[in-house]
Design brief:
By secondary structure, the chain is α/β, with parallel strands linked by helices. The chain has helices at 35-39, 52-55, 58-65, 73-80, 151-158, 175-184, 207-212; strands at residues 2-5, 11-15, 18-22, 44-46, 68-72, 87-90, 95-98, 101-107, 113-116, 119-122, 127-132, 139-141, 162-166, 190-194, 219-220, 229-230. The chain has a single domain (2-225), classed as Metallo-beta-lactamase, Chain A. It is built from seven helices and 16 strands. Keywords: Hydrolase.
């Protein structure tokens, strides 16, 4: 499996002939490689929730690539009205198998919505996303979330080995709570911190989180934006 981080919460997973792009906030995020680079080879877009810094460039990417959008019922309905043609609607706790991999939406402690015609519209529940594919490590994108005890149940049920964990504080877990979750609730082989440094309101880096992850066997990696690595 090849993983690329584009800053904030945007990740691409590549395995077999699939390209899964999570929360593609590319334009305006500070990533210098450009949208064409991020969406190369993308077959599916997965959204954790409806905030602008996660929906990002979804509509343009879906239109230009023909990628299938996978997200909550409310989000895919909203983006369908904006021209996204191929959609797979879901909701919290549900799972689907599409193109030989399985996606499950977990709960996340956050909010989800967008300004629509000047009015803030609710867009369903925020989610985390589990991806399971034959012969590949199970991946858990936690989305934007606070700490919650049922993370332990998610670990017991799905046994994710790679975690994309928000650490920027204020709107999500910060270094202390994110490290607590990794140390106490999960058995990750690899953790990639995210949702930091993009805006002035967030923690500027992941250094404190990295120092506080002490669980034996868990590696923390802070990759360079746009540079793919194997996992």
């Amino acid at each position: 499996m090849r993983i690329t981080w584009y800053g904030h919460s945007a990740f691409k997973l590549q395995f077999a002939d699939k390209g899964l792009l999570f929360d593609p906030f590319i334009t305006g995020s500070g990533y210098g490689g450009g949208l064409d680079d991020a969406m190369a080879g993308v077959t599916h877009v997965l959204l954790t929730h409806g905030h602008d810094d996660h929906v990002g460039d979804t509509v343009e990417i879906a239109k230009r690539t023909g990628a299938t959008l996978i997200s909550s019922f409310e989000i895919v309905s909203w983006l369908g009205q904006q021209g996204v043609e191929k959609v797979e609607p879901m909701n919290t706790g549900g799972a689907i198998t599409v193109d030989d991999f399985t996606v499950t939406l977990t709960q996340a402690f956050h909010s989800s919505g967008a300004l629509v015609n000047g009015v803030f519209a609710q867009l369903g529940h925020p989610n985390g996303i589990i991806v399971e594919a034959p012969g590949e490590p199970t991946v858990f994108h936690l989305g934007d979330t606070g700490l919650f005890g049922d993370m332990k149940l998610i670990n017991e049920l799905y046994r994710p080995k790679i975690g994309f964990v928000p650490v920027g504080d204020r709107f999500t877990m910060g270094a202390r709570t994110a490290a607590y979750a990794v140390n106490n609730f999960f058995d990750f082989d690899l953790v990639v911190p995210c949702h930091y440094g993009t805006f002035g309101l967030l923690a500027p880096d992941a250094d404190s989180f990295v120092k506080q992850v002490t669980k034996p066997g868990t590696k923390v990696m802070v990759p360079e934006k746009g540079r793919a690595f194997e996992a």
